[in-house]
């Protein structure tokens, strides 16, 4: 007897019990009394056998087949005896409707439909063929013999599943009574949850059947909707809903946003989507369903507070969100483009006048009856009319014309030559409603077009803006959010709070996203500068951006040159109003000789002297310049070594005590100087050799040296905390011919780049050999680091 006989008997009894249940059998009272809001997902479920075996759903495979016809004569009894039984090898395929063979000959010349199978069971009696499955059909029996017990059980469970799912698909395809249909849906869900098959299609197949049922029967009542959603809720705990089901959920969220089903059933589904979805582009209806769910939360009594709690639940109580996909999915759901073209609002409200603006060609007499709301579509062929035009209105223009068109308010400002628009009063959407396109085409000299959306649209945008603000309040999400928003900087008031949060963050990876993603493209920094399209605060946000950027690694000549070239006027205007950051910027421009034009220099000086803070800082600049000239006056030593344990203050005190215009060799090895001493080192114009061995001199100081010490030839950075970011700045030091980077944080890739391309590629052969030797000495640390 087979050692697995006990398990076989148990499986046999279990599935015989399942098979004996009528397909349209009565459900328990607990199922009949299930109500939304009273634990809809807590229905008792049937579980699979206690053995805990799991199987992969079979779609095809090799197996031995024997067909036994029901004996009608004595001769047929002899031919069907076990001694004369003949087995045929077949490669069987389990389709959605039948069992067929790849070689339709012999026993499997014709396919065996699932509807013709009367019984399906394992053979476990004495002297039965080993590892066999019995399929009973009218007029005979089909025996399937597998190679082992596990493969036999896998074939048995797969056939059982295919047979039942085929029956449920037929029953639910032509529903007659919805009370019976609801019972069948519950039985289908229980069957999927109790199946020992472990496959994605086990849960997806019932969902697709139910979604097809709902799509073909759109006249269901709201109560039927809720009952079906509650019934399929257990299947959605670990599976995304299919597209048709998402559309059904969207409809329910729009029509009944206050339903308890939205909170109790949809919440875990949406949470799973946000945590695990990898690409909304492949499943756009998941994104639309998540949008509708969030907007349904916004319609509750709590409104914004409920949305806040939901976003907080997605982040978690700790300081770091454990799910990396939540933030990008939320940003995708917010629909940032709605802040520009408001495409989502156009589709949601389904306003004909708004569609006229989007398409630019629909006429009043061609309007069709409103269609059901659809998910957001791609951008139309004809570009939408921009909501605001940057062209300023001309003086002495007539008062703006107001055109009420259905759900929107359009304001047109015209020149003196503009023709008058004839407006007809009438009910919204009637024949007397003015044609918005005709209004727009009356005069080609339309200067400004402003569209006021209804309160519902503003509520939607307000919800999206709130979520975006909340995302920017989480410290761990802010760097990734900044990088997501950097390529699409659009000038909207709703985003100003988010940009302020970026400008207040001291981390470089956050506030560096304020700059443009590439040259020639405006970023947040340009948009919020005085005169920019988004500036509405007299440059306060722009000043805070400059302050945070100047406080980090952007305190360089390159950044100051960019400001002097593109934003000198706004900087002078803000300095004239007493902004301390801009006063400091102008002083640095003078100190570093950024401005070459004498008239511009005099204008900057006049601007600085016009305010008290500017006058004080300009006086300090003049004092520093006089000290610098005295320091750079020819004379003094050519070599200088500071004692160990010296600090930045000691170096500043020493250099201010005399003239060091001839100083060429300075050793700060084994001192306590930091990157702050770079402010003093750049005042030594003749410096050629600098030893910073075993100091705390870092990347920020290295960048400053690379911009001011053009004559530096030898630099020792051994045992300093410099990294690749600082070493890259050395490419601008064309005179550098010796560099010691031993025991630094230099990576192998940067080391190889420096070996191939030294800062000065046209060095003499002897100097190049010395450069290679120094790098070889540094390679020991790099190799150990690898």
**Order of strands in the sheet with most strands:** 4-3-2-1-7-6-5
Shape: elongated
Please give the share of residues in helix.
40-55%
Structural class from helices and strands?
Answer: alpha/beta
Structure overview:
One of its GO terms (cellular component) is nucleoplasm. Pfam families: PH_21 (PF23066). Residues 363-398 are annotated as: Disordered. It comes from Oryzias sinensis. The protein is an alpha/beta fold and 786 residues long. The protein is built from 32 helices and 15 strands. It has a seven-stranded antiparallel sheet with strand order 4-3-2-1-7-6-5. A five-stranded parallel sheet has the order 11-12-13-14-15. α8 (243-255) packs parallel to α10, α11 runs parallel beside α16 (455-473) and α18 packs parallel to α21. The chain is elongated, with a radius of gyration of 39 Å. The two termini are 61 Å apart. Residues 1-50, 341-451, 761-767 and 776-786 have low confidence and may be disordered.
């Amino acid at each position: 007897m087979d050692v697995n006989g006990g398990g076989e008997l148990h499986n046999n009894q279990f599935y015989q019990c399942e098979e004996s249940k009528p397909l349209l059998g009565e459900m328990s009272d607990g199922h009949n009394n299930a109500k939304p809001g009273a634990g809809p997902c807590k229905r008792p479920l049937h579980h699979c056998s206690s053995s805990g075996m799991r199987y992969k759903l079979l779609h095809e495979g090799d197996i031995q087949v024997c067909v036994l016809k029901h004996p009608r004569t004595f001769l047929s009894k002899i031919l069907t005896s076990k001694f004369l039984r003949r087995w045929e090898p077949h490669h069987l395929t389990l389709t959605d409707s039948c069992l067929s063979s790849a070689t339709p000959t012999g026993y499997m010349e014709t396919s065996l439909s699932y509807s013709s199978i009367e019984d399906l069971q394992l053979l476990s009696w004495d002297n039965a063929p080993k590892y066999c499955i019995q399929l009973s059909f009218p007029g005979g029996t089909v025996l399937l013999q597998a190679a082992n017990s596990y493969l036999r059980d896998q074939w048995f469970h797969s056939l059982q599943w295919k047979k039942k799912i085929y029956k449920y698909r037929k029953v639910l395809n032509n529903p007659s009574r919805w009370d019976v249909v609801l019972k069948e849906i519950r039985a289908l869900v229980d069957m999927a949850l109790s199946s020992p098959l472990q496959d994605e299609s086990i849960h997806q197949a019932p969902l697709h059947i139910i979604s097809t049922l709902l799509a073909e029967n759109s006249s269901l009542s709201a109560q039927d909707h809720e009952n079906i959603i509650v019934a399929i809720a257990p299947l959605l705990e670990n599976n995304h809903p299919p597209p048709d089901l998402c559309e059904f959920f969207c409809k329910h969220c729009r029509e009944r946003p206050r339903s308890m089903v939205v909170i109790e059933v949809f919440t875990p589904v949406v949470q799973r989507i946000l945590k695990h979805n990898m690409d909304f582009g492949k499943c756009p209806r998941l994104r639309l369903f998540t949008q509708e769910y969030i907007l349904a939360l916004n319609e509750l009594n709590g409104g914004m507070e409920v949305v806040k709690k939901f976003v907080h639940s997605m982040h978690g109580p700790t300081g770091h969100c454990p799910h990396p996909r939540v933030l990008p999915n939320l940003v995708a759901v917010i629909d940032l483009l709605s802040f520009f073209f408001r495409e989502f609002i156009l589709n949601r409200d389904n306003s004909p006048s708004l569609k006229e603006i989007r398409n630019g060609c629909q006429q009043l007499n061609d309007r069709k009856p409103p269609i059901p709301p659809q998910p957001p579509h791609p951008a139309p062929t004809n570009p939408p009319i921009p909501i605001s035009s940057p062209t300023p209105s001309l003086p002495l223009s007539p008062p703006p014309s107001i055109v009420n068109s259905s759900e929107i308010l359009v304001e047109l400002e015209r020149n003196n030559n503009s023709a008058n628009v004839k407006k007809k009063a009438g009910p919204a959407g009637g024949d007397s409603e003015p044609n918005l396109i005709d209004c727009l085409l009356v005069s080609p000299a339309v200067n400004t077009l402003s569209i006021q959306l209804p309160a519902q649209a503003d509520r939607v945008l307000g919800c999206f803006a709130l979520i975006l603000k909340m995302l920017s309040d989480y410290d761990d999400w802010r760097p990734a959010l900044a990088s997501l928003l950097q390529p699409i900087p659009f000038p909207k008031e709703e985003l100003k709070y988010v940009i302020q949060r970026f400008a207040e963050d001291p981390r470089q990876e956050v506030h560096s996203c304020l700059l443009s993603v590439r040259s020639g493209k405006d970023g947040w920094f340009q948009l919020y500068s005085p005169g920019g399209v988004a500036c509405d605060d007299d440059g306060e946000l722009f000043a805070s951006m400059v302050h945070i950027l100047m406080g980090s690694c952007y305190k360089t000549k390159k950044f100051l040159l960019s400001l002097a070239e593109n934003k000198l006027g706004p900087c002078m205007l803000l300095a004239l109003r007493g902004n301390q950051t801009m006063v400091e910027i102008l002083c640095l421009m003078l100190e570093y000789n950024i401005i070459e034009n004498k008239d511009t220099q005099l204008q900057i000086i006049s601007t600085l002297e016009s305010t008290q803070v500017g006058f004080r800082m300009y006086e300090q600049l003049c004092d520093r310049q006089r000290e610098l000239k005295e320091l750079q006056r020819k004379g003094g030593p050519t070599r200088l070594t500071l004692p160990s344990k010296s600090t930045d203050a000691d170096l500043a005190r020493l250099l201010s005590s005399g003239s060091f215009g001839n100083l060429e060799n300075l050793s700060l090895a084994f001192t306590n100087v930091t990157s702050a001493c770079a402010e003093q080192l750049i005042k030594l114009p003749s410096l050629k050799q600098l030893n910073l061995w075993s100091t705390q001199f870092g990347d920020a100081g290295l960048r400053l040296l690379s911009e001011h010490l053009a004559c530096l030839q030898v630099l020792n950075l051994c045992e300093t905390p410099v990294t690749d970011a600082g070493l890259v700045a050395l490419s601008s030091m064309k005179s550098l011919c010796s560099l010691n980077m031993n025991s630094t944080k230099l990576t192998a890739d940067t080391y190889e780049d420096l070996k191939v391309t030294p800062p000065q590629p046209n060095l003499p052969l002897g100097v190049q050999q010395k450069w290679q030797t120094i790098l070889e000495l540094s390679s020991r640390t790099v190799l150990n680091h690898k």
